[in-house]
Amino acid sequence: MTFVFWVWRPGVSVLLLLCVCDGAEGVIRRHCDCYEEDMYVQKDLGGFIQCSLKPGLGPYAECTEITDLRTGLEEVFPDVRSLCILHSSSSLPADSFSHIPLLEHLYLDGSHLAKVTSGAFAGLPKLRFLHILVSSSWGGVNVTLEPGVFQGLSSLEELTLAGMSLALAPPALLDPLVRVRSLRVDRAGARDLGELFCLLSPGMEKLETLELPGSMVSSIQNGGCSGSNPWPTVLLSRIRILDLSGNPVRRVEPKSLSVFQNLSSLSLSVVDVWVGQLWGSGMGRVNKLYLSSYTLRQFTPSLSDLCTLVVKHGVESLNLHLALITAFTAEVMKRCGPGLRQLSVTSEDLSGMDLGFWTGTGQIQGLMMVLTKLTNASFCSAGGGRVWNLTSLILHENHLTEITTDQFSCMPLLERLDLSGNHISSLAHRALQGMPLLRVLDLTHNKISMLGADDFEGLPALEVLLLEGNKISGGIAHGVFRRQHRLQDLSLGEIDIIYQLYLNMLFLGFPTKLQHLLIDTGPGTYLTVGHVPAPEFPMVLELRGKMIQSSDCENKMFPMVRELKSMFTDLVSLRVLRLYSESPLILLEGVFIPLLSLSTLVFDQVDFRCDCSNGWLLDWADNSRKTQVVLLQRQQCIWHYQRLNFLSTMERLCQTEDDFLSYVSTTATVCTLLCLALGYRFLRWPCVVLFFRLRGWVERRVGRRWWRRNRRMGGQWEELIEGEEKEEEEVRYDAFVSFSSGDEAWVLGEMAPMLEEGEPRLRLCLHHRDFEVGKGIVDNIAENIYCSRRTVCVLTRRYLRSDWCGLEMRVATHRLLSEHSHRLILIFLEHISPFELSAFHRLAKLARTRTYLDWPQDEDERVTFWERLRRNIAERDADELHDPPEAS
Predict the structure, then answer these.
(1) First to last CA, the chain
(2) pLDDT in tens, 745-791
(3) 3-state class (DSSP) for residue 289
(4) Which of 477, 502, 660, 780 is the most exposed place for a label (fewest CB within 10 A)?
(5) 585: DSSP letter
């Protein structure tokens, strides 16, 4: 049910509205708003972009302030089917909308657009409606359209190009649009129809509507296309609707429109053109003809010539805008014949018209006279008692002052009567009698001050009654709407000096089919609904006034409310809430809690106060999973007499300490994790070596003896000697052998037997044999290297590729640098060139500055190799032999 409820308070107004989407998500979007299908919402929310959203094509999205179409549309959901964009981009790049594959309706408005690249609309196989607006000027802007711009739009049915010149368009621009039914090229700046007709592709066989308004065509003539090519006559002969309005047509050449033989509608703007040129143009039948003046100066066609045109071309509907017609009499109207069904005239002055003109034809079913300065609408009395089978009468913006008795009684078939914008102050007795089929009555913006009990008694079929804009101060009689049981839409005027308003007494019941009720009251009006039946259909209730009071909440109408201003209690079915404020607004926290069904919250021109008491709204909008917030990013707040953007200002003013700490801690955590990841990837082994170098530096500076001496109480010489002996015992191996697992066979088969079984017998540390089980590999490597007098590295290419061997080399190098007593012995088991070693700068430096051993291939030389290796391992450096210090 669509039930709208308006309430105005001093400076604050709120509008609640039904049905935007079934599943919403609380998100504050910076540029785009997405919302679901709902006709009333679409009509009410499309105020920022003049984009007519088509029913049945939801979900919808509306984007503004877009500077880059590639990144600016990231907020648009991929399931959106209708998209309106207000942008400042200079180009439409390829694949701009490919991430919205379900798009069917696209509207682009950008005054800076200069280029549309090929493939700009690629990935939109379902697009049916495309509107591109570049400039609102009349000349047309030069926009570069690359070949293939519309490639892939095989489903496109309606194309609008507005404000761009097509003089430099590629010849086959429209070739891919084989299913287009309607083409509108607006304000293109063309001076010859051939420029526009010749752009049409022969493959556009379904084209029926061709609109070319707002260009500079002053003469209609068939001059063909460039290169002596004729107009695409086969294609043009299928056109049913041709719009050439807004062109300063001064001449229509004979036979120039002969290709159009079966038009259903023709619109044309003229400058002092004799109407006879039209029936000489060669065009065929035209059902609807719209003629207007190009300038503000009225054109003066003869009613006789118009009737000749109507008869010659079978015109059924004639619309004349800014036309000054003389001799508007029944005698002349007879020449229009019986075929004319609709007549619409907008003129500065038809006050001298014969009100009985309609008797000349008698077949007119719809009459519209706007701005004609009519002061009297006594068509029936001028008709001499004849019955007029009129179904629609629109007399908008005239000078009518009253409706007299039985003024429209000769129109028994009338269904619509529009008297809005006049000066009607009263309804005479039985003024609206004789119209039993009347469904729509519009009396808005008149001067009606009182509603009597019998004013609408003769309108039993009335469905829409509009009285808005009338200041009703003389009272409303009880039962004034008692006969309107079919009423669906009722708008009451400004009810002034009426302090008690009983809805049930206005109807003496309640029309259960009512879907929209608007009541505009003065200050202090007390509203009572009373005992009324529940509406059968979705209903919109609008209450307007500076202060409306009501304690009558226990009724069957309020639970159906869907739209409201400032009154939220008992609205458990409310689904859409719209807020409007005329003064700085503060929303109390929890104000939306009673709205259990709220799915959409719309902010419409709200001026907030830049106060942190509104800060809860941002958190609620972000975290609410069932309510979608619309247009909040466009609202402003008042700060020191300045209007600032609400979102950005609140984020600066109301950032709490918790928010700041959360930001700092999150940033620190992310940076730490990033540094750890990078360090592990690039600095893992250098850090390990650095650790051992620092440990060696500490040992060298502090000294193990000093540390042990201070650990003991009293420190005697014998204890120092015992400590040195224990330290001596800590050197468990003569050599730590660093080798690759691929060279294990040589180490175990050749090296270990020769060194451990010969004389003197040496103690070797081999990792597969001597590493402590259960201890970490790094700890085992470091401990055993520091427990060995020498480190022997068995170098091969496999050794260079091993990370563990590299670690052993780094630890040994660190010890070599920190303890000059340690010796590093290099054995090249295979030849490795200096170029291969250059990638390992530490090893290459050792090979250049220290003597190393090569494993000889000759058996005889291997004896000398083993002797040299044994001697280098077994030798003790001079600084290792020292005398114990004297006891103090």
Answers:
(1) 105
(2) 888 888 888 888 877 788 899 888 888 888 878 888 888 888 888 88
(3) strand
(4) 660
(5) B
